[in-house]
Design a protein that fits this description.
- The chain is an alpha/beta fold.
- It has 2 domains: 65 residues, no CATH class; 351 residues, TIM Barrel (Alpha-Beta Barrel), CATH 3.20.20.
- The protein contains 15 helices and 13 strands.
- The longest helix has 18 residues.
- The radius of gyration is 22 Å and the shape is globular.
- About 3% of the residues have low confidence.
């Protein structure tokens, strides 16, 4: 029988052909449309049976498959060889972005920096928690983490020494606004083992400068582009961009500008996303240009369109594939500048979502974050479950002021999945 998580999609460029897409395996097979219809009804050509079985597109039984899905995350955590942390070095920043989530829930931005004592506690925490893992990964975050080059040096030097002594792979990355990617800072980062950086550009110059100005009101676009141009010669750069309903149509102009500056697909990767959150939620920012769910019509259309624009210009992107919320990973943590621990960076500083601290340890957070909220009949019967696993708890919090129930993405995938998979096939993202 066909897998509950095998979805039959129209092939937009080949009439008479359909796509069998496995949400569990992120695999696709192109077959005649009449064959796809037969397989959907349970009639599988014998000569294709083993191949489709190996791709998890046909299965032995529905209940066994549901049981397998219930244990998916447990198996992932058991088999994972990687421990990781998002380390918030400061809540200070030299930009004043209009939608910054750290302004939510009680103004989290400010002149707050990690002390050396807290950094030492983090190093001990990382060593202890990663002891039985083969890989250790730390992403430096803020605020603007490059305001804390001395702390990046201290943490990376100590953890790299530990990793080398214990035979572990150790990697460092940074999420930065890019304005401080000077020649000196980039050289230092590379020498410390920082191999990648994520930088944000919110459209062409005028649009970006509107949403992401310096604190003094000046435009940050030119400084950031100069930083990206230099850093891309020495480390992997992912350019992110946060769009709104009014700004997303400007983003193709940014892509063309980047190509004109030599920031092509062999130099950088690109991923654009809608701004999440708006001021309709009590207690949050007065910013009201974002979205509160991936199911919003404009966000679906904008996402599909911009993804096509990115791909056709030769930039690297990941294909549609199973996705887990960071909350579901046992071995990934967000560590605030003061040593408080969280599972989701969106929850930083919000009352009720700290799972402990570097000094007190980790407390049970299953109820706090509504863990395994997707283990219900409706989700387990949904073909999109492996792509969603209950969605984004932070998005649910923004909408409702609490985490309760799933952030259902069914409307989104009903409208977008066929287009996304067709893009992946067209641009050969499936190998």
């Amino acid at each position: 029988m066909i897998s509950n998580y095998c979805i039959v999609l129209e092939h937009k460029e080949r009439p008479g052909r359909s796509i069998l897409f496995s949400a569990k395996r992120a695999s696709s097979v192109i077959v005649p449309t009449d064959m796809a219809a037969s397989i959907k009804e349970g009639f599988v050509p014998e000569e294709n049976r083993q191949a489709l079985y190996d791709l998890k597109m046909i299965i032995d039984g529905a209940e066994e498959e549901k049981g397998e899905m219930k244990g998916f995350i447990e198996r992932f955590n058991k088999e994972s060889d990687k421990w990781g942390a998002l380390l918030v070095l400061t809540l200070d920043c030299n930009l004043s972005c209009k939608y910054c989530f750290e302004d939510y829930g009680g103004s989290q931005k400010g002149d707050f920096y990690m002390t050396k004592e807290t950094a030492e506690e983090f190093i001990f925490f990382a060593v202890e928690r990663s002891r039985h893992k083969k890989q250790l990964s730390v992403t430096f975050y803020g605020g603007e983490p490059l305001l804390c080059m001395d702390m990046i040096e201290y943490v990376s030097a100590n953890l790299r020494h530990y990793a080398e002594a214990s035979g572990k792979d150790c990697s460092f990355s940074v999420i930065t606004n890019g304005s401080l990617l000077t020649e000196r800072n980039v050289g230092k980062l590379v020498s410390l083992g920082v191999k990648s950086a994520k930088v944000t550009l919110d459209g062409p110059p005028e649009t970006h400068n509107h949403y992401r100005p310096f604190r003094n009101g000046g435009g940050s676009f030119d400084s950031i582009v100069r930083g990206i141009e230099h850093a891309s010669n020495f480390m992997q750069i992912q350019i992110g961009g946060n769009y709104t309903e009014s700004s997303w149509r400007k983003f193709p102009e940014l892509l063309d500008y980047m190509i004109g500056e030599g920031l092509t697909g062999d130099k950088v990767s690109v991923r654009f996303s809608p701004v999440l959150g708006e001021g309709k939620t009590p207690g949050l920012s007065d910013f009201n240009e974002g979205c509160l769910t991936a199911n919003e019509e404009w966000a679906i259309g904008a996402g599909m369109s911009l993804r096509e624009e990115v791909l056709k210009r030769g930039y690297r992107m990941l294909p549609v594939r199973p996705s887990l919320c960071v909350i579901e990973s046992d071995d990934v943590f967000t560590v605030n500048y003061n040593g408080d621990l969280y599972k989701c960076p969106g929850m930083l500083g919000i009352d009720g979502f700290s799972i402990g601290s570097l000094t007190s340890g980790i407390r049970d957070y299953r109820q706090m974050y509504d863990m395994e909220n997707w283990k219900n009949g409706e989700c387990l019967s949904c073909s999109y479950l492996p792509l969603c696993f209950g969605g984004c708890r932070y998005a649910g919090y923004l909408r409702n002021g609490k985490i309760s129930g799933v952030d259902c993405r069914k409307v989104y995938y009903d409208k977008a999945l066929a287009e996304l998979v067709n893009q992946d096939i067209k641009y050969r993202l499936y190998r």
